[in-house]
Design goal:
Number of helices: 9
Structural class: alpha/beta
Number of strands: 7
Low-confidence stretches: none
Strand content: 15-25%
Mean pLDDT: 87
Shape: globular
Length: 208
């Protein structure tokens, strides 16, 4: 199983797909699920298998991003009505949410809370990503190889698939995990993103 999924609520008028971040459990975001339910949303919550990130198995990581998108598309196809549907992600879940938006025309918008513009550059060229780098080097990766294998899931790829659907980006200047310069790669590639910047919150605090 490449991801875990649970449903919260049975609202029929609005749907949100929420994809959690690295090393989190579905229950971590329970306050958000309940708030979304109070606002009339049916919530489908996902948690990725973060072990694939630290195991240097890039193809499995890309595969789970694709698998979540396929599950979202399948869920929307099976629903009996045309309720507006949205996708939201946190940290690594944000890259998955953006991929889902690009490849699922029925999704109307995406909200990304702490997000990378380039996963490959984050792993290979940032202070925060350096803890992952030795595992990849031990498996004969260099920056070129990791970039090639991550290419299908890179946030700044296939931006034209978004069309005129809005993308909301929330990040913090004090993020101690994702450098602002990496997030800026995505902001530069987006057409008129809706941005909310926090000045004092860290990476995890910004998510809440």
């Amino acid at each position: 199983l490449m991801f875990e999924r649970r449903q919260f609520g049975n609202g029929r008028h609005r749907i949100i797909f929420f994809i959690g971040g690295y090393r989190t459990k579905i229950g971590v975001y329970t306050p958000f699920y309940w708030l979304a339910r109070l606002l009339g949303y049916r919530v489908y919550a996902y948690v990725l298998d973060s072990k694939t990130v630290v195991s240097s198995n890039i193809m499995a990581y890309v595969g789970q991003i694709e698998a979540v998108q396929q599950d979202i598309a399948k869920t929307l196809k099976e629903l009996p009505n045309e309720a507006p549907a949205y996708v939201m992600g946190n940290s690594l879940g944000s890259e998955s949410a953006l991929y889902a938006l690009k490849h699922t025309p029925k999704l109307r918008a995406a909200a990304l809370v702490t997000v990378r513009g380039s996963i490959a550059r984050f792993i290979w060229k940032t202070q925060a990503g350096k803890s992952f780098k030795p595992a990849y080097e031990n498996n004969n990766y260099d920056f070129t190889k990791i970039s090639q294998e991550l290419n299908p899931a890179e946030p700044i790829k296939d931006m034209e698939l978004i069309g005129d659907r809005p993308v909301y980006v929330f990040y913090s200047k004090a993020d101690n995990v994702i450098p602002e310069s990496n997030t800026q790669l995505l902001l530069d590639a987006l057409d008129n993103p809706k941005v909310r910047v926090y000045k004092r919150l860290g990476h995890f605090a910004a998510a809440f």
